[in-house]
Design goal:
- There is one protein chain.
- With 310 residues, the protein is an alpha+beta fold.
- It has two domains: 1-66, no CATH class; 70-309, Jelly Rolls (Sandwich).
- It is 20% helix and 34% strand.
- It contains six helices and 15 strands.
- A hairpin with a 5-residue loop joins strand 7 and strand 8.
- The chain starts with 22 loop residues before the first helix and ends with a strand.
- The model is unreliable at 1-44, 46-50 and 58-65 (pLDDT under 50).
């Protein structure tokens, strides 16, 4: 057997990415490895090499599957109807035409007329998503109804990676807020990051026990003033407990789930629901449904919703 120089070892060409290496193939594989100049191959070592190569291939294949982006395609949606790609939970969500492309619109106008009524849509959607009307979620319905949300159908749960969406502010008197919904729990608790055109800021909000509370605002001294007539990108990255939100590529806020909250207004103690020990939605890891978020009478357009698991 020729001695190897230690470099340029050619792997067996018949090693398959998946499946078992049969005994009948062992001699061929061993011969190819020996031809490549590898010294001192014994049966146990050779089997170990084959097993390691197969395991590595499987890991790479699984990683590739897990890392595949989910890009919401609106091209087959029907204009004038609720989107098939999202499950509207609260509010009026429709597919509309914007120039030459289809987009999703949250229409805040009907909300004004029905804001005092717990929504029937919420009950029906809860049955579809969780197989039950979920009494705890129904108890939250009156407050929940102030925040139009639509849940992405194609992702059952999301924990780590990136969620991005493009939005365009259209109208709204009380609010003009466009956001990403995430960490949605079966009881209706959720987290959301949003840009608000009436306040020119970005914020992270939590919803728990029927009440929405602010977790973190972007720097109030730095006003975001994107052109309302243009499309803008809101992006959320989740890495374990670390959350970062970007507006048009600029880091707007960062937060670590599980962190001890700071004092409230006038240095008052933080509300008990903002303490992670009392509120599962604020404890890592993130694990829940995702989607689109708005507030009260907001009318916004959304497109290019992309989920990139990590």
């Amino acid at each position: 057997m020729k001695k190897s120089s230690g470099f340029g070892i050619r792997p067996p060409s018949r090693l398959r990415r998946f499946g078992r290496v049969r005994r009948s193939s062992m001699s061929v594989l061993r011969a190819e490895a020996e031809d490549s100049g590898f010294v001192g191959i014994r049966d146990s070592g050779f089997v170990w090499i084959c097993a390691a190569a197969i395991a590595a291939a499987l890991v790479m294949a699984v990683t590739a599957i897990e890392a595949a982006d989910v890009k919401v395609d609106l091209s087959k949606e029907q204009v004038g109807r609720p989107p098939a790609t999202f499950e509207p939970m609260v509010g009026t969500w429709l597919v509309v035409q914007d120039g030459g492309e289809k987009v999703i619109m949250v229409d805040g106008r009907p909300w004004v007329a029905s804001k005092d009524n717990p929504t029937k849509l919420l009950i029906e959607s809860a049955r579809k998503l969780y197989g039950t009307s979920n009494e705890e979620l129904m108890d939250n319905a009156r407050q929940f109804a102030y925040f139009p949300v639509a849940v992405l159908r194609s992702v059952d749960t999301f924990s780590n990676g990136t969620i991005s969406v493009k939005f365009k502010t259209i109208d709204g008197e009380a609010d003009r807020a466009s956001g990403i919904l995430f960490n949605v729990k079966p009881n209706g608790d959720w987290l959301a990051v949003r840009y608000n055109d009436t306040e020119n800021n970005v914020a992270l909000w939590e919803f728990h026990n029927g009440i929405r509370r602010n977790v973190r605002f972007s720097d109030r001294a730095h006003k975001f003033t994107p052109d309302r007539a243009s499309w803008h990108e809101l992006k959320l990255t989740i890495d374990g407990a670390r959350l970062e939100t970007f507006l048009d590529g600029e880091l707007a806020l960062a937060y670590t789930l599980g962190a001890t909250p700071g004092p409230g207004r006038n240095n008052a103690p933080p509300h008990p629901d903002l303490i992670p020990a009392n509120n599962a939605v604020l404890r890592p890891p993130v694990q829940g449904k995702i989607g689109l978020w708005a507030k009260t009478d907001t009318t916004s357009y959304f497109k290019d919703y992309v989920v990139s698991p990590k």
